[in-house]
Inverse folding.
């Protein structure tokens, strides 16, 4: 059974929509890639408009961009720590956009979609591993939030 990118042919009430155009091959979707930690394997697939997509099946390197130094370095991926896409992706070692991964240079947040681009890009993040579990460190702005009082009230 294929994944379908168009809307449903049925209304929420159960009635039918009358389609303005028939089903076409370009509306068929693909199953998710599930990029994992491991030796580099990349599939090349044809895309719409005579383009090519590089789908990463597994990767072991990440490009880390440090905005303060304005430098990019490569690091080796060790483990997936947090995945906001799905909690089971952590134990399956699946990397998606927004996932936090452990590298030999520290913790990195994935900023691109490795299943569609064939590489992993990331930025350093303030992530701390604790004994009882793992958590993200709050930024200085979040710690110093102060509730402002309205001064325009008449007394």
């Amino acid at each position: 059974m294929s994944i379908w990118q168009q809307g449903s042919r049925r209304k929420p009430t159960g009635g039918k929509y009358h389609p303005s155009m028939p089903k076409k091959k370009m509306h068929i979707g693909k199953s998710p890639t599930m990029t994992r930690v491991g030796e580099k394997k990349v599939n090349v697939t044809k895309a719409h408009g005579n383009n090519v997509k590089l789908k990463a099946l597994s990767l072991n390197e990440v490009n880390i961009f440090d905005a303060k130094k304005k430098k990019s370095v490569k690091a080796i991926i060790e483990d997936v720590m947090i995945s906001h896409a799905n909690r089971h992706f952590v134990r399956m070692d699946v990397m998606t956009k927004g996932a936090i991964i452990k590298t030999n240079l520290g913790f990195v947040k994935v900023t691109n979609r490795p299943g569609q681009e064939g590489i992993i890009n990331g930025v350093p993040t303030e992530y701390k591993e604790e004994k009882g579990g793992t958590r993200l460190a709050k930024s200085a702005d979040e710690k110093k939030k102060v509730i402002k009082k309205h001064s325009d009230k008449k007394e």
Observations:
- The domain at 30-129 is CATH 3.10.290.70 (Structural Genomics Hypothetical 15.5 Kd Protein In mrcA-pckA Intergenic Region; Chain A).
- The first helix runs from residue 89 to 92.
